[in-house]
Write a structure and sequence with these properties.
The complex is a heterodimer. By secondary structure, chain A is mainly alpha-helical. Chain A has helices at 10-40, 58-65, 67-100, 106-118, 121-132, 141-165, 169-177, 182-211, 214-219, 227-237, 241-276. Chain A has a single domain, classed as MetI-like (MetI-like fold). Chain A is globular. The model of chain A has no long low-confidence stretch (mean pLDDT 88). In chain B, α2 runs antiparallel to α20, α15 packs across α17 (325-353) and α16 packs antiparallel against α17. The chains are: A mainly alpha, B mainly alpha. At the A-B interface, α1, α3, α4, α5 and α6 of A face α2, α11, α12, α13 and α15 of B.
Chain lengths: 277, 420
């Protein structure tokens, strides 16, 4: 499309140039926090200022040797993996059902299924706090896993539904006409083809739980504090360089998630392209 | 489908094909519903139920009927014009004595204190001084002697107003309204009227953030949409990476950058621009910077996808017809981006309305939004009725905007094909 913007007149050239300059500044603004915090985590000094007095890994060591941070990492992983697994089962089944269901209530059901994304976190958290407290589910792993599953499942439904839209139903029909049972068809025909979509859904679900802090603030006891919860207290009290080390580790995880998603998306396109072609 | 046909073929021959097809389709639909059902049941327990519970708490008035049951029934027919009769006084005396024995006076006192400031003292002092049940016929005099407030119509109106089972008290309070002695809705006393300000502040910040996102996001989306695919995919990483980075990481980074010994202040001092550090964080400026940063990708991405579908032929046509670039941009290009501006703007606004973590960490006391107060009344002062009422108002605002957003995006999907 660039040839359409090959500047023709000086005025157009100036307009295009100023767009490039302004947009570049905004992109720098978007990246600034990540770029600014990264070198500080490798500082050998205890202050968050430039220039760095020296380079060291002491704040990463501090993170690895701190029982509090390690407990929060463990909690984040336990809660993240469990709620991802649960939301994958519920979300995939629902997406499969929604793909076949024709009803005037479908829009309403879809709105209900997706509503946890829209409703402000504080409202969900307060509602769950009132609801789970009498059941003994506050201050427990089970309560947090259930809550995070509710928040993560919409992303699974969206991702898997999008994948199913690109799925050629004739393949399932062909399998059935050759005598395969519905379960066998799902296992051997549908599942391998939608697997990249499922994997993306799982990554979205895990990222949602891994990043969630509002529900954890209300519901977690001292034993269930997650990484974001620990960061929240850390930022409130005073920002130590250890927090910047944690921030860099979390950012690295985000980069890996993003890269995996992109890889899966391309793979999915290729798979469906081959099947349809 | 094939399986259904085979099953249908084994059925009684007199059943028409149409009906068999219908039956097979119905079975299919039933199976589809059965697949969605587990999620719906799960959400009922972990999401819809809790939210319905919260909404119920915003109108639930259980304290006074539970602690002072006889008083509530004695006041059922009280017209509120004069002081209630001796029977009501006797019922109150009996209720207070049994509440004192059960240790529940504080529950009712707390609820009544919301309605009338100072009612806690009236009730607890009465409970303390009412040693024995008053002689029949002397309840009124005894109670008024213990605390003259029982000779005031307003004290009784407060009890009647709180006698449940449901109340509009919390919802009215969340809008700075209250009921006077005669039950009319009036403005709440000046010192309790803070929520309209908080809602106004929440809307102002959300609107400001939305405007900033549009202002900053528009050139980026335009650049991304008009660069060759390879380069725009590369630049898209600059948008997606912050989008995927933890909210707390970004908030933390802004504090490091903007605090008084932070990167910005240090650089400005080093350059000799300032002598004293500027106050860039823990105020409204910090809230705007951090929230705009967090929400900017939600504006750029919808704008980008709309701009990508705008054919350059329109702009070329406008230019060839003699329109100056500015006119062509304003009259031809900008109107075509309106769906993207609407979708991105609404999305950012909806998300901003419910923000809690970022203002709590980078804002000052005067920059807290409505979510902060909901959290505050839930965990700090344990005024769950008011927390729920504020939550109900926020939920309503969010859902109304979400429905508008849904209509807008849905409309784009159905007309999208027509435009190209």
């Amino acid at each position: 499309m660039s040839e359409n913007h090959a500047p023709r007149t000086p005025g157009q050239r100036a307009a295009w140039l100023s767009t490039v300059v302004v947009a570049s500044l905004v992109l720098v603004f978007l990246m600034a926090p990540i770029l600014a915090i990264m070198p500080l985590s490798f500082s050998s000094g205890a202050y968050l200022t430039y220039p760095l007095p020296g380079v060291s890994f002491r704040w990463y060591e501090d993170f690895l040797n701190s029982p509090r941070w390690m407990l929060s990492l463990k909690n984040s992983i336990i809660i993240g993996v469990a709620s991802t697994a649960l939301s994958m089962v519920l979300g995939t089944l629902a997406a499969l059902g929604l793909a076949q269901w024709k009803s005037k209530f479908k829009t309403v059901v879809l709105a209900v299924v997706l509503s946890p994304v829209v409703v402000p976190g504080v409202i969900t958290a307060v509602g769950l706090y009132f609801f789970f407290a009498p059941l003994g589910l506050t201050g427990s792993y089970a309560g947090l896993i259930l809550a995070h599953t509710a928040l993560a499942t919409p992303f699974v439904v969206i991702t898997v539904s999008a994948t199913l839209q690109g799925f050629d139903m004739n393949l399932a029909r062909a399998s059935a006409s050759l005598g395969a049972s519905p379960l066998y068809t799902f296992w051997r025909v549908i599942l391998p083809l939608i697997l990249p979509g499922l994997a993306s859904g799982a990554l979205f679900a895990f990222a949602t739980s891994f990043d969630e802090v509002v529900v954890v603030l209300f519901m977690a006891g001292p034993e269930q504090r997650t990484l974001p919860r620990e960061m929240f207290s850390g930022i409130r009290e005073n920002i130590s360089p250890t927090i910047t080390a944690v921030a860099v580790i979390l950012t690295t995880i985000s980069v890996m998630l993003l890269a995996t998603l992109e890889w899966l998306r391309r793979r999915n396109e290729k798979l469906q392209g081959n099947v349809n072609g | 489908m094939t399986a259904a046909f085979v099953a249908g073929a084994e059925g009684p021959p007199e059943v028409s094909l149409k009906r068999r097809l219908k039956r097979a389709e119905r079975a299919r639909q039933f199976k589809a519903l059965a697949l969605v059902l587990p999620l719906l049941v799960f959400l009922l327990f972990t999401f819809l139920g809790p939210i319905a519970g919260m909404l119920w708490r915003s109108v639930d008035d259980w304290e006074v009927p539970q602690v002072l049951p006889h008083t509530v029934s004695a006041l059922a027919n009280w017209d509120g014009k004069d002081l209630p009769d001796e029977k009501a006084y006797a019922a109150l005396a009996a209720d207070i004595q049994s509440a004192r024995a059960a240790g529940t006076v504080a529950i009712a006192a707390k609820r009544l204190n919301y309605s009338v400031n100072g009612f806690r003292t009236i009730l607890t002092s009465t409970a303390r001084n009412l040693k024995t049940a008053p002689e029949p016929g002397t309840a009124k005099d005894t109670l008024i002697k213990i605390n003259p407030a029982w000779g005031e119509r307003s004290s009784w109106a407060a009890i009647k107003g709180a006698s449940g089972p449901v109340t509009s008290f919390y919802l009215l309070a969340s809008l700075d309204l209250t009921r006077n002695v005669d039950g009319q809705v009036v403005a709440a006393p000046e010192d309790q009227s803070i929520y309209r300000d908080v809602f106004a502040r929440t809307f102002t910040i959300s609107f400001g953030v939305t405007a900033l996102c549009l202002l900053l996001g528009f050139p980026v989306a335009y650049l991304l949409a008009n660069l060759p695919a390879g380069r725009s995919n590369l630049l898209l990483i600059f948008v997606l990476l912050p989008f995927w980075t933890s909210l707390l990481v970004r908030t933390c980074a802004w504090i490091v950058i903007l605090q008084s010994e932070g990167i910005v202040n240090d650089s400005l001092r080093w350059l000799g621009v300032i002598d004293e550090p500027l106050r860039l964080i823990y105020n409204r400026f910090g809230v705007y910077v951090a929230m705009t940063h967090v929400l900017l990708p939600f504006m750029i991405l919808p704008l980008y996808s709309v701009m990508k579908s705008i054919s350059p032929a329109y702009m070329r046509a406008a230019a060839s017809l003699g329109a100056p670039p500015v006119t062509a941009f304003l009259r031809i290009y900008l109107p075509q981006t309106l769906p993207g501006i609407g979708a991105g703007g609404l999305l950012v606004f909806i998300l901003a309305l419910g923000y809690y973590i970022t203002p709590a960490l980078v804002g000052g006391a005067g920059d807290q939004m409505i979510s902060y107060f909901i959290a505050f009344y839930t965990t700090e002062t344990v005024n769950w009725g008011l927390a729920s009422a504020l939550g109900a108002v926020l939920l309503l605002a969010t859902l109304v905007l979400a429905v508008v957003y849904g209509k807008l995006v849905h409309g784009q999907q159905t007309t999208g094909g027509m435009k190209n």
